Amino acid sequence: MTAIEADAQASGKLWREEIRATLALAWPLVLTNLAQTAMTATDVMILGRVGPSTLAASALGANLYFAPLIFGLGLMLATVPMMAREVGRRRNSVRDLRRTVRQGLWVAVLVALPIWALLWNGEHILLAMGQEPALAAEAGHYLRTLQWGLLPFFFYVVLRSFIASLERPGWATVVAFIGVIINLVGNLVLVFGHLGFPEMGIVGSGLATSIANFSMFIGMILVVTLDRRFRRYRLFGRFWRADWQRLRQLLWLGLPIAAMMAFETTLFNAAALMMGLIGASSLAAYAVVIQLCSVSFMIPLGINQAATVRVGIAYGSHDPEAIARAGWTSYAMGVGFMALSALVMMTLPRLLLSAFIDVDSPANAEVVMLATGFLAVAALFQIVDGAQAVAAGMLRGLQDTTIPMIYAALGYWGIGLPLGVALAFHFGFDGVGVWIGLCAGLAVVAVLLLVRWLRRRHLPAFRAMP
User: Where are the transmembrane segments (predicted)?
Assistant: First the structure.
């Protein structure tokens, strides 16, 4: 065997090992994300059986709840690249990982307090936004029970990030699915008043979700204190001791992640509002298509999280070649899956839509027609959405978050939203114009993030490596 053949064989082996490691890390994270989506879907399905006004009130409350939730989630995710880098730098590190987890829990408390104050006054906020008083009042009661699950959910995310950084995310998946079951049972019992409990309606649904989130946090506490692989870190010892340096580092890294996620979430909220201005059928068609996109997005989102860990570990070990392998492996997986998803959307639109509505009913004819048109654009949307999500995770592994945040603001709100407004309302494209705007904004962000990854050797992270 020649030297060239030996090098090629060794290189191929490294790539295969990276593919296996990324898959082993990504699939539990994907299942965890799907479990979180299942919890939301459970609430919607059960409250839909109560009545249309209750479902509408829950939608109002959920929209107000999810924006600050996503922002706080972004702050919690800053713990992942910090811990992954330390694992790569020193595999047996204990104290540094414990510092990050503890201060991540501190950040969770700090961000939860103002969000609680905001959500406690949800009814007044919705009234100020011009919502119907009856719906605003019901949504306000919903939020006052739903909000108490926010802090334990943030705690769960921090502990999930800890075990994911150690490349052992399986327990988080188990805990998440237990949470789904608890949420389902809690909704059935508390919303409708079974097993001797009073019938609580929408308030019962919020309480069930809070109980499920608290149960998931308790589950993760049991995992990290009883499993011998995690017990040695003693994560909760002297929790009250402040570590201001690590807290500042987490905020410096996490605030851009939180802002980037908030820019994307609010863009989709704005798109829903525009669809509502166009017409009820457009809004219904958008709701169905965006739900399809959301489910498929859970796969690249899980790969995004795996990319952050794998790139972060390679970054901590000061291995530029391993960084490249980790990043490109995740990128190929994420974009490849979304390309297949796009192909399914283009070839089987009615089959996909039939999972949500009766496509043969004459009453749904307009919604089906509009949704089919939206799916044609959403197919391309899928690819660029997966590309930007995974690329953001790759750069996050290098602790590069500020410039990607600026790219997101430019792409989503500087290009995507104005273009969607112009095409929908000034050029007569209606709902398709909104989707083209979304797709264009995501495409711009995807390209900018990819270019930044290609130029990664010029980033501060690379220049700081010995």
Answer: 64-84, 105-122, 142-159, 171-195, 201-226, 250-278, 284-307, 328-347, 367-384, 405-427, 433-454
